[in-house]
Structure formats: structure tokens, C-alpha cells
Design goal:
This is Prefoldin. Belongs to the prefoldin subunit beta family. One of its GO terms (molecular function) is protein folding chaperone. The chain is mainly α and 119 residues long. The protein contains two helices and two strands. It has one domain: Helix Hairpins (Orthogonal Bundle). Strands 1-2 form a two-stranded antiparallel ribbon. Helix 1 runs antiparallel to helix 2. The longest helix has 47 residues.
Length: 119
């Protein structure tokens, strides 16, 4: 069964547009992933630094344009929660990145297979 030239061109354009969209999404997800990993490292470093402080040491958290005094254990708990949330986001972004990379790869393979089949 042979596909007409026009139908083949239309199909190639559709798959090509999907591949381009996947490549754009890959770039976006990689940027988000790097950002979340940086935030997670910063939270981990901050938590390790404040863990060396005595519990009665005044520590401050930036809230908008002001600073709020928090007890050390409360800030450690807050940072721990933020790290768990960011780990979940990083895992989710990693799965999405894998999906998009697979989609882009499959799109390219389909285009090549169609073009080779027509020759």
C-alpha cells in the first residue's frame, strides 16, 4: 500500500511539528530542572549551616522586603519540607524530560522511515 505524495508530505509536516514542539519543551524542562536542583542545593546548604547553630540562636527568614525571626528548629523543619517538595518536582520533571526526549526521538525515526520508504 502506497501513500500519495501529498498525504506523505502532510504527515511529515505534522510529525515534524510535533518534534519541534517536543524540542522546545525539552529546553524548557531542562531549564526548570536545573533551577529546582539549584534551589534544592541552596536549601540543603542552608539547612546544614543552621544545624550547627545552637537552638536559641536568632535566625531570620526573608519575607518580601522584610525579615522575620524564626526559631532554628522551625526553620529546619520548613527547609526540610521545601526540600521534599523540590525533590518531588525534580522527579516529576525528570519523568517529563524522559517522555519528551522519547517523543522527539520517535518523531525523527518516523520521519526517516517514511522518507526511506518512499525512495
Amino acid at each position: 500500500m502506497s501513500i500519495s505524495n501529498e498525504a506523505l508530505q502532510k504527515l511529515v509536516r505534522e510529525i515534524e511539528s510535533q518534534a519541534i514542539a517536543a524540542q522546545q519543551q525539552i529546553g524548557l524542562v531542562r531549564t526548570q530542572l536545573a533551577s529546582r536542583q539549584r534551589e534544592m542545593r541552596l536549601a540543603h546548604l542552608t539547612r546544614s549551616e543552621i544545624s550547627t547553630l545552637p537552638p536559641d540562636t536568632p535566625v531570620y527568614e526573608g519575607v518580601g522586603k522584610m525579615f522575620v525571626c524564626l526559631p532554628v528548629p522551625e526553620l529546619q523543619t520548613k527547609l526540610g519540607g521545601q526540600m521534599k517538595d523540590m525533590e518531588a518536582e525534580v522527579e516529576s520533571l525528570g519523568k517529563r524530560l524522559h517522555y519528551l526526549e522519547t517523543t522527539a526521538k520517535n518523531s525523527q525515526e518516523h520521519i526517516e522511515r517514511m522518507l526511506k520508504g518512499q525512495q
